[in-house]
Structure formats: structure tokens, C-alpha cells
Amino acid sequence: MKFAFLLLAAQAAAPSSGIDGLPIGPLPQQSLPARGCAAYLFSTGTTRTLAALATADPGTLRLSIDGKVIDLPRTGATGSAQLGLNAESVYRAGDMVATVQMTVELRQNLTAGAAVPVATLRLDREGRDTVVVPLAGLVGCAG
Predict the structure, then answer these.
(1) Neighbours of 46 (CB within 10 A)
(2) CA 104 from centre of chain
(3) pTM for this entry
(4) pLDDT of 100-111, one tens digit each?
(5) Closest listed residue to residue 105, CA positions, set 84, 88, 82
(6) What's the rounded Cα separation, in Å, for the pair 95 and 44?
(7) Please, are residues 38 and 53 in contact by the beta-carbon 8 Å criterion?
(8) Burial class (CB in 10 A: 0-12, 13-18, 19+), 74
(9) 11-58, pLDDT tens digit by residue?
(10) 10 Å Cβ neighbour count for 43?
(11) How high is the mean pLDDT of the chain?
């Protein structure tokens, strides 16, 4: 009886379906964009899964926040651009601001894309803690 109670208590206290207890959850499988390029960014912590998709045209960021897949429009970008993706891009919708910083490396062994060896996602939401997630991934471009 005590075991059943402890099991129920542990389940109630378990983190949401986010990546490593964060409000950012895994994205389902994503297709290549119809035009331009997109960065497929994976979490690099304990759980490795697709965490963000940044498209160059139109400039959007797809995330799963609190179990809901959302697209944030790009509202600003700075730094050098490779394949239409800037070193730093800011995405905003309502009271949510997401900032993605990434290094895009063109490599001879990759065609129609590039590597993203280092990236970070910073998520700011009014009235909530700021979350910073380390990422890495690949850029894929439409044929």
C-alpha cells in the first residue's frame, strides 16, 4: 500500500514531457523546407532529440513549448549569415522571445547543407525563468 502511494506521488511530481525537465519539448519528425534552408537543432544534454527548427525563408523558429508545437516569426538577426541563417536570430510572439545563436560550418562532405557544431537557444517568457538550452545539428536545404 505504501509503495502504491509513493509511486503515485512520484508520478505526480514527475517533470512534464519537456526535454530534461525543461519547458521545451521534442519536436516530431520535420521535412525539408519547400524553399531555402533550415537548421535542425538537437538537444545535447542527457536527452538528445530534435528541439528546434529554424527556417531561413520565411524566418521562423518551430518549438514545442509546454506540449504545444508553435512557430515564432523572426523579428531580428545579426552577425554573418550562412545559407540564409544568421549567427544570431531573435524570434518573438506575444510575451515569448527566443534567441538562437549558432555557428554554421560549410563542409565538403555535406551537400545541400552544413553542420551546426554549436548553438544555443535562449527562451524568455514574461513572469517565468529564462531557459538556455545547448544545441547542435545540421542545416538542410531544398533541392
Answers:
(1) 8
(2) 15
(3) 0.86
(4) 999 999 999 988
(5) 82
(6) 26
(7) yes
(8) buried
(9) 344 445 789 999 999 999 999 998 999 999 999 989 999 999 999 999
(10) 22
(11) 88
